């Protein structure tokens, strides 16, 4: 089918099963249940999976959809669902995007995404990362107290979508419709389109050049993998064991740094140290500059060095963290002059660890480094940090639980790579600007990890995720 003539104008594409390779809605509602509410709602929704599947098999797709929506959303506030749609789901959507569909979709001038999910779950991703002009989905009903009732306004989802697409293109028919092969054209939005494609999208048109969607740089969910029924069941079965293991690990990590090598492997944690590790006694006053992958990055650096190195932290942490951390912490005041003097004082006493990103990052990107560290010393050792976990990772907004979730992973692996100390000619002492030094360190850390550098910074993350700038994190 020759679709080249339709490309310059408009396309209407189904989201699940077309823009996304998977037709599975269940796992996305599971993500919403877990991150917006917690384990109880997650468990209830999983227990209803057989019922949802049977309804779908016997042709009651609307009923199955409404049941998932009800269990995942009832009692929540709309901003809580919006936060998940903005901060959690996009990363999982991006992993499942069909590049063949994207090749065609992105080449059109006017782009519309259609979904059976509540619009609030898809809209941010579709507009921000896919460049959609309109997102048509179901609408949640909110009561006068501000809580979602779990009900949607639509009685028949397909008919509602059809009428909304017709209204949006009131002046003319959309040129191209992309949808799943399981639906009847006459009862869906595809009937409005001049050209309909059901199933795999043809990609033999040489005029269409593949440009990837806008990447997802910020992510704030706790689950590493998309919770399909099998994965979700495995998580639930592991949870009691993981909680006991996390409790033991919390206690063990109070031990002095020198004692950790004797117990860390027994508890299922692996630490891989690479590069030239600076020796004690020859590195006093060195500033170890690392990217920030999780809350215990400074602990892992101290473990690799075999001695406790103080770490700079930006946000206000509870006394709990001061007690639990085996390394000293230095609190930033957010006054640049005061903080610079504080870091100089600490460096005069010995080594120091700093994470210039100022916030934790989960995606394969290194955020822009704050340049202040480059002004304070020319003894800079970049350190590339990475962490591989099985089930759970941190979130920005609730660090006490984050530490527990992090320690609940069956066999977490930390990778600490010490890079060579910056030569004098690459520091401010040789006339380089602090920003040039910071950008250079950011790049060599990112290159070591195989990550990309981003111009976005900590402030951009908190603005994007609608978080308070006082969010807890160790830096």
UniProtKB/TrEMBL annotation:
Keywords: Acyltransferase, Lipid biosynthesis, Lipid metabolism, Membrane, Phospholipid biosynthesis, Phospholipid metabolism, Transferase, Transmembrane, Transmembrane helix. It is found in: Membrane. It is a multi-pass membrane protein. GO terms for biological process: cutin biosynthetic process; phospholipid biosynthetic process. GO terms for molecular function: glycerol-3-phosphate 2-O-acyltransferase activity; phosphatase activity. The chain crosses the membrane at residues 39-58, 232-260. It comes from the Eukaryota. Residues 286-388 form the Phospholipid/glycerol acyltransferase domain. It holds the Pfam family Acyltransferase. Its main location: membrane. One of its GO terms (cellular component) is membrane. Belongs to the GPAT/DAPAT family. This is Phospholipid/glycerol acyltransferase domain-containing protein.
């Amino acid at each position: 089918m020759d679709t080249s003539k339709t490309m310059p104008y408009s396309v209407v594409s189904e989201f699940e099963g077309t823009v996304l390779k998977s037709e599975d809605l269940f796992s996305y509602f599971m993500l919403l249940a877990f991150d917006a509410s917690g384990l109880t709602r997650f468990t209830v929704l999983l227990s209803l999976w057989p019922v949802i599947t049977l309804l779908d098999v016997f042709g009651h797709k609307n009923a199955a959809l409404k049941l998932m929506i009800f269990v995942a959303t009832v009692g929540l506030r709309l901003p809580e669902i919006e936060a998940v749609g903005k901060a959690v789901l996009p990363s999982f959507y991006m992993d499942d995007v069909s590049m063949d569909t994207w090749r065609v979709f992105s080449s059109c001038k006017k782009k519309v995404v259609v979904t059976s999910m509540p619009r609030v779950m898809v809209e941010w991703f579709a507009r921000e990362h896919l460049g959609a002009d309109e997102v048509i989905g179901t609408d949640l009903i909110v009561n006068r107290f501000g809580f979602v009732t779990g009900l949607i306004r639509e009685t028949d989802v397909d008919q509602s979508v059809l009428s909304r697409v017709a209204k949006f293109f009131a002046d003319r028919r959309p040129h191209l419709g992309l949808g799943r092969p399981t639906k009847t054209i006459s009862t869906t939005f595809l009937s409005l389109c001049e050209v309909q494609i059901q199933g795999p999208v043809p990609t033999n048109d040489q005029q269409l050049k593949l440009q990837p969607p806008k990447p997802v740089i910020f992510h704030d969910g706790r689950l590493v993998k998309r919770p399909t029924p099998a994965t979700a069941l495995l998580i639930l079965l592991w949870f009691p064991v993981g909680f006991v293991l996390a409790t033991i690990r919390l206690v063990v990590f109070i031990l002095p740094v020198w004692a950790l090598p004797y117990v860390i492997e027994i508890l299922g944690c692996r630490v891989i140290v690479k590069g030239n590790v600076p020796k004690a006694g020859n590195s006093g006053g060195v500033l170890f500059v690392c990217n920030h992958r999780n809350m215990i990055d400074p602990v892992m650096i101290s473990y690799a060095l075999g001695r406790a190195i103080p770490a700079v932290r930006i946000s206000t942490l509870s006394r709990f963290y001061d007690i639990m951390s085996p390394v000293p912490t230095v609190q930033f005041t957010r006054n640049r002059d005061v903080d610079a003097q504080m870091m100089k004082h600490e460096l005069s006493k010995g080594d120091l660890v700093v994470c210039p990103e100022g916030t934790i990052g989960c995606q394969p990107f290194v955020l822009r480094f704050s340049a202040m560290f480059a002004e304070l010393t020319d003894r800079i050792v970049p350190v590339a940090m990475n962490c591989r976990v099985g089930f759970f990772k941190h979130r920005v907004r609730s660090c006490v639980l984050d530490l527990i979730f992090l320690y609940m992973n069956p066999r977490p692996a930390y990778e600490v790579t010490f890079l060579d100390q910056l030569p004098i000619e690459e520091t401010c002492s040789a006339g380089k600007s602090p920003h040039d030094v910071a950008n250079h360190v950011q790049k060599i850390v990112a290159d070591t990890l195989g990550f990309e550098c981003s111009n976005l910074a900590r402030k951009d993350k908190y603005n994007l995720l609608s978080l308070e700038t006082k969010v807890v994190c160790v830096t």
